[in-house]
Amino acid sequence: MKAKFSKHSLLYVLLLILVVGCSKNDAVDDANTACSTTTFEIALDALEEDIGVFDLCEDNLGNVFILGIKEGQNKLLKLNEKGELLWSNAIDNSMTPREIIALSDNSVIILMKGESVKTYCDVLYEGQMLWAQSGFYGINCIPTYEIGTSHCYSNKSEVLLLKIGTDGNLLWSKIIPDHYIKGNSLAANSDSDFYLLTGHLYGMQPEYVYNDQGEFADTINYPLDRNHLTLYNISFEGDINWESQIGNIYIPAYTD
Fold this sequence. Notes:
Layout: E1 3-4, E2 9-10, E3 12-20, E4 36-43, E5 51-58, E6 64-70, E7 73-79, E8 85-90, E9 96-102, E10 108-113, E11 117-123, E12 129-136, H1 144-147, E13 150-164, E14 170-179, E15 185-188, E16 193-202, E17 207-210, E18 216-220, E19 228-235, E20 240-247
Antiparallel strand pairs: 1-5, 2-5, 3-4, 5-6, 6-7, 7-8, 9-10, 10-13, 11-12, 11-13, 13-14, 13-16, 15-16, 16-19, 17-18, 19-20
């Protein structure tokens, strides 16, 4: 089961715990679900853990892992099925936590992102680059009213994966470089591996192309574009078994 929370401090976290027969994609509030559920409320202030929550997950034993931040420190909490705190550990503080999943061995994988490094360029309509500048920037693209006719020319970031054992110890960490800051997602697969989906934006915006019936037909690729998604299959030991790229992608976050 997955749930998303804001980064603001939460005194109470409502946890919907799946007891039997539920996959992580089942909707707990769906009236048609066949899963048995139980609901309990954990008072984090009573646990002396006034923590801002990023994400949470449940392992096969009914334990709940809460990924959050307290007073500027990234933290991971483990609670049993009764909501009792088992342990609370500080984790890597160099990047921002994004997602957590539980694996079949009851360990967890945490996905963290680094600062986004972007390169900006001003271009003529025929595509000639006038200038480019690299650096950090807090939003996706420089607004056109700031520098005229502009495009995000490149966007890359580092993804950090952490594997945490049942006792809270760090088992391994792995950096996946040069990937898009928003295109990251984890999925458990089997008893031996899991998936990481990332992306990379390089070039001007691909655009949707529709046919006469208004149906999506393709995207337009601009010269020098290397926009792509990458799907990784990663072992429980942190080794990349394989990776596959899909090119000519459209990233709505840059145009919406």
